[in-house]
Amino acid sequence: MSERIGWVGGDQPRHLYYINEIAKEFPVMGGIMQTRGNAVPTIEASADAKDKSNWTRHFWDRLQAEEKYFGKQEDPKFPLLKVNKEELNSLNSVDFMENIMPDIVLVFGSGMIREPLMSALPKDTINLHLGLSPRYRGAATLFWPFYMLEPNWAGTTFHYIVDTPDGGDIIHQVTPKLDKDDGIHDVACKNVLESTKEACRLLKMYPDWIKYPQKPEGGKNFLESDFKPQHLRMIYNIYNNDIVKRYLNGEINSKEPKLRRQP
């Protein structure tokens, strides 16, 4: 393809794997990379000992899973503007994007894009959302399907960005093949692997994409504040991280999602 690609994303291994793999096949002219902070966030000192243990296990296991699936990821080789959360939607970001003049911008792992950056991006700005919209929008949306005992809903959505969280027209959705030994982080990493392959397929199809409008009703926009340490008790203390196995064995029932996909 001859179109110029830009990127807006995070700095964690899953985000870097996505864009580094794409850059092997397509002309990425530059990107804005947001630092996402500590990969193992702190928990309140007053938290219950059980919750502290689950918290540490959850986030350290995520680090180990990303190392297993993505290996060591380096910063992309194309021009980068590194920003923090407060700088993401700044005039510096606008200037950077206007200088590289992309035809398409891929978004994965950044904070919410707002003005003035929003208006500086091309109409074909596509977010990879780790969640199946509209049922799971917002934050931690590969966690909540496990908490709700529907691991087959842990998938991803490619959609156009708009000024509401994960609410733009859908291009494509992905769910990975589940295996009995998969824990919550295996499924998350397999989603990124599969979605990266599908992103390359979608770029080869550009601009012949079918667009699927999202209905405003239905689903939930999960906030970062919705996720609490106590929620991890469901994953680790009640089910010992074997929710996928119990689903595949028929002990847990969940209807199948109706995915929006390109042919």
Task: Describe the fold and architecture.
The protein has 263 residues and is of the alpha/beta class. The chain has helices spanning 13-23, 49-70, 91-100, 117-120, 144-147, 184-205, 232-238, 243-248; strands at 5-10, 28-34, 80-83, 104-108, 125-129, 136-138, 156-160, 170-174, 220-222. The strands form two sheets. A seven-stranded mixed sheet has the order 3-2-1-4-5-7-8, sandwiched between helices. Strands 6-9 form a two-stranded parallel ribbon. α4 links the parallel β4 and β5 (125-129). α1 (13-23) runs parallel beside α6 (184-205), α2 (49-70) runs parallel beside α6 and α2 (49-70) crosses α7 (232-238). The longest helix is centred in the N-terminal third of the chain and has 22 residues, at 49-70. The radius of gyration is 18 Å and the shape is globular. The model has no long low-confidence stretch (mean pLDDT 96).
Structural class computed from helices and strand pairing: alpha/beta
- Supply Rg: 18 Å
Please outline the major beta sheet.
7 strands, mixed
Distance between the termini: 19 Å
| CATH architecture call | 3-Layer(aba) Sandwich
Structure annotation, total helices:
8
Mean pLDDT: 96
Percent range for β-strand residues: 15-25%
Number of strands: 9
Query: Quick one: CATH class?
Result: Alpha Beta
Q: Which sequence of strands runs across the widest sheet?
A: 3-2-1-4-5-7-8
Approximate helicity band? 25-40%
CATH topology name, in short, is Rossmann fold
Brief digest:
With 263 residues, this protein is α/β, with parallel strands linked by helices.
